[in-house]
Amino acid sequence: MTSDADYTPAYTLDNRWRAARDRLAMLELASDPFTAGNLDKVGVGAGWHCLEVGAGAGSVTRMLCERVGPDGRVLAVDLEPALLAEISAPNLEVRRLDVVVDELPETAFDLIHTRLVLVHIPERNELIRKFVRSLRPGGVLLLEECDVRPAYAADDDVFRPSLMAMYRPLFDAGLDAFWAPTMPAELEAAGLLDVVEHRELLTFSGGSPMAEFWRITYRQFLETQPYTDAERALMEEGAAAIAGTGGPWIAWEWTTAWGRRP
User: Which of 88, 121, 203, 252 satisfies CB 3.0 to 4.6 Å to 146 for a cystine?
Assistant: First the structure.
């Protein structure tokens, strides 16, 4: 496990940034209904042992703790887990952990879940195999990621250009927001059975929680990523537009895949 002394965040959205909690709160409002529905479909219930990877501000961790009950266990890991400190649940363990380099227990979990994490990690396909080794027989790996191709193809001269400008240095650094449709094949290649895929277009209107999520995200990236003056102007214009009453705009296609270890 990574110690405090040698911790250096590799994730492009550092949870120690001053408005990280606000950004994640807006994302949770938009995303939690998708995740709750997927946990229902997978059948997460009493007594399950779960691993939440990239736990963020903890809304999914809370869901899992409630679902597994006193006989279950939830391990929530993140590069920066400080935002999880307010969760008080006797069946929860929180660790600072880098899943790329740190060890995970093998054959330990009934469910491993990630949400909007793997697209940021270049070693994403290798991590799927690592997660599979940590599943118990019959355990489920549930992945929820974004596919921005519909947003990039949208007939939209306001939000789309700002989004494309925002993602440019992130793609250069190893993010792949086009990767999500390959998840079912990767799960099957890792040996999982009964693989299921589901896609749903996520749209939003001005002034909504998703619009505020993007506005805060733009702010964080403008402070931390190398943009040209033209890209900065596009992002500022997009942030101003989505603060109003326009839309709807396409954020991404919410892509979900899961499978079971034999």
Answer: 252
Torsion sign across C-alpha atoms 195, 121, 135, 24 = negative
Q: Which two tokens stand for residue 155?
A: 């007939």
| Tally: H helices and E strands in the chain | 8, 7
| pLDDT of 5 | 36
Beta strand pairing call for 92-96 and 249-260: unpaired
Closest CA to 143 of 245, 17, 35: 35
Mean pLDDT of 160-172: 95
* Amino acid at residue number 225: Q
Q: Is 130 helix (H, G, I), strand (E, B) or coil?
A: helix
Over residues 87-105, the mean pLDDT reads 97
Q: How confident is the model at residue 38 (pLDDT cuts 50, 70, 90)?
A: very high
Interatomic CA distance for residues 139 and 261, integer angstroms? 5
Q: Give me the pLDDT at residue 14, please.
A: 78
Are 140 and 196 a contacting pair, CB within 8 Å?
A: no
- Helix extents (H) in the chain: 20-42, 59-68, 124-134, 149-152, 159-172, 183-189, 209-224, 229-242
What's the confidence (pLDDT) of residue 16?
Answer: 80
Residue 160 half-sphere exposure, CB side, CA atoms within 13 Å? 12
Q: Per the confidence metrics, is the pTM higher than 0.90? A: yes
For 156-166, letters b (16+ CB in 10 Å) and e give bebbbbbbbbb
What confidence tier does 128 reach under pLDDT thresholds 50, 70, 90?
very high
| Cα–Cα distance for residue pair 106/104, rounded to 1 Å | 6
d(CA 234, CA 136): 47
